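Next comes this protein.

***
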Amino acid sequence: MTNQDHDPTAAESRARELFEASVASLDEGTCARLAAARREAVYAAPRPARQAWRTWAPVAAAASAALVAVLLWRTPAPQAPATPDPVASDATLDSVELLASGEDVDLVENDLAFYDWLDAAEFDSGASAG
C-alpha cells in the first residue's frame, strides 16, 4: 500500500474528530488521573545527558582564535639578512686568491710561526695600551 492510496488529510481530520469526541466525553476524575499519569511518565523518562562540550566549544574556539591572533601580532617580524661587509669580503677573497694561486705559501707558513711565537710569548695587548 502506498501513500497515494488514501487521502492523509481526510484520515487525520477523522482521527482528530474521534479523539476530541472521546476526550470531551471523559469525566474530570479520569482527566485528572490521566494528567497525573502523564506527569509521572514524563518525570520518569530518562533525561538526555547534558553535553557540556556543546556549550563550551564555541567559547574555546573563540579563545583559541584570539590566542593565535595575539601570538601572530606579538611575534617580531623576521629580520632581513645582514649585508656582508665589503671590507671583510675583500679580505676573505684575497685569502682565497692567495691559497688558490699556489704562490707565497711560505708567507702563510711564516704567519703560522708568528702566531705560535705570540702564543709562547704570552703577549698581553691590555698592558701595552696604557
Notes: Residues 52-74 form the longest helix (23 residues). Residues 8 and 14 are 10 Å apart (CA to CA). Helices lie at 8-24, 28-44, 52-74, 86-101, 105-121, 125-128.
